[in-house]
Specification:
The chain is built from nine helices and eight strands. The longest helix has 17 residues. The chain has one domain: Alpha/Beta hydrolase fold, catalytic domain (Rossmann fold), CATH 3.40.50. The protein is globular and about 50 Å long.
């Protein structure tokens, strides 16, 4: 399918904007915060509260989104995107509000440590620690630990997939679903879509190299499953999944490859490619026509997974 006309117009408006790899980390962080505000705030909820969670490197800030409904509600632990370098609970506030509202679930958004100040595996350690904490303290959040999922977009999708692997290997916490939105799953950056979609569609191949090189130490094994879940020896026994990809995304192929690996391992998984869309579309329903249907698909999948799990 051709690039969606609205997306094409947005890219034309952006013109020859500098690649993230051409600006400083501080400038890139400010840019994502400003860009995230272009589509307006998410819906009002019954409660939104900030708190701190103990983590391996100190307190981890989280934001807890509670929609209307009778407790205990199902719970989603959400990891924001931004290449492990940029992004925050602030930049992803609208996404988390919309997801909590549409899925009827408490959403806990995690402010994990960012690179280059804290490199791999700091982010993975924070995300797993926070997931464990949410499970252990679900009652405090008005949440049901038996109906718990992980979710994330881009680098956050990577962290959600890695957290699911770690939870399986550690014997818990038990998860019922993983929502992986255009996840980064292969740090070798070797799939064709990196080249095919790596120049003209907002996220560029050079940006992915910039992100990865800030996050992964020079001596890191790029096929370490905590960095590249696609390279895990075994992906069986994981919670069911929805993998959302975008047609004109450099990360399209690696996300779909991970979804297909899950399917081959017997994990109930749907891989859903959004035609005409680019990386980042999920969080901006006004700018990107595919965002509304994708949110509906994601929230419906979460509701089904929660409904099939005993509370």
């Amino acid at each position: 399918m051709a690039l969606d006309p609205k997306v094409k117009a947005l890219l034309a408006d952006l013109g020859d904007a500098a690649s993230l790899s051409e600006i400083s980390v501080a400038e890139a962080r400010e840019l994502i915060e400003v860009f995230s505000e272009q589509d307006g705030p998410g819906p009002d909820l019954a409660d939104v509260a900030d708190r701190g969670v103990p983590g391996p490197g100190g307190e981890i800030p989280v934001r807890v989104y509670t929609p209307a409904g009778d407790a205990p509600l199902p719970v989603v632990v959400y990891f924001h995107g931004g290449g492990w370098v940029i992004g925050s609970i602030r930049s992803h506030d609208p996404i988390c509000r919309r997801l909590a509202d549409a899925a009827g679930a408490t959403v806990v958004s995690v402010e994990y440590r960012l690179a280059p100040e804290q490199t791999f595996p700091a982010a993975t350690d924070d995300c797993f620690a926070d997931t464990r904490w949410v499970h252990e303290h679900a009652a405090e959040l008005g949440a049901d630990p038996a109906r718990m999922a992980v979710a994330g977009d881009s680098a956050g999708g990577n962290l959600a997939a890695v957290t699911a692997l770690q939870a399986r290997d550690a014997g818990g916490p038990a998860l019922v679903f993983q929502l992986l939105i255009y996840p980064a799953t292969d740090a070798t950056l070797s799939f064709p879509s990196i080249r095919e979609n790596g120049e003209d569609y907002l996220l560029r191949a050079v940006d992915m190299v910039w992100f990865r090189d800030h996050y992964a130490p020079r001596d890191a094994d790029l096929k370490d499953p905590r960095l590249s879940p696609l390279w895990a020896d075994d992906v069986g026994g994981l919670p069911s999944a929805l993998v959302i990809t975008a047609e004109y995304d450099p990360l399209r192929d690696e996300g779909e490859a991970y979804g297909h690996r899950l399917q081959e391992a017997g994990v109930a998984t749907r891989v859903s490619r959004y035609a005409g869309m680019i990386h980042g579309f999920f969080g901006m329903p006004t700018l990107f026509p595919g965002a509304g249907p994708a949110l509906q698909e994601a929230s419906s999948a979460l509701r089904r997974a929660f409904a099939s799990s005993p509370s």
